[in-house]
Predict the structure.
Amino acid sequence: MTKNEFMSRLSAALGALPGPERDDILADFEEHFATALSGGKPEEEVTRDLGDPAEIAAQYTSEAPPPEAEPVGTRVGRGLLAGMGLLLFDLILGLPIFATVFAVWLALWAVVLSLFATGLGLLLSPIALLWYRPIPWGAAMLFGLSLLGLTGLLTMGMYYVSKCLFRGTAAYIRSHISIIKGGRLS
């Protein structure tokens, strides 16, 4: 085996090591070859004396310490710290904002329901009050139908507002869970 073949096999076998460490090992073997060749030894004899590049690389990679795993307690501690920070954030900013948005959402649904009740009442008022006092039933029914139509449009709009509010709330909760678990926001 030639010097170039030996060095390329050794480099490939040391591929698991970090770059600077691998370069140091390869430089040592280059120096060994230079010393032996300047002493008059042929390349084949030097590579035979050194041995199999895979076995040499196995010695270096087995001595390398395994990558350290993060202790479980550290992750739990970070999760608790993140949870306490998020709780504080939610109490100071999140809860008042969410309560305000929820109150506005509830008030808008109340408006939709009151418009529906008013329209239904105006639509049925000529029938209910016919014996009491004559009222312009045509105008009342027309206005009642108009309010019911407006109620239908507002109901469709509130459906989409509600859908966005619930999706936003779910995304907010998922982001909290992701932060507590140690992930990043997505």
Residues 3-63 form one domain. Residues 72-128 form the longest helix (57 residues).
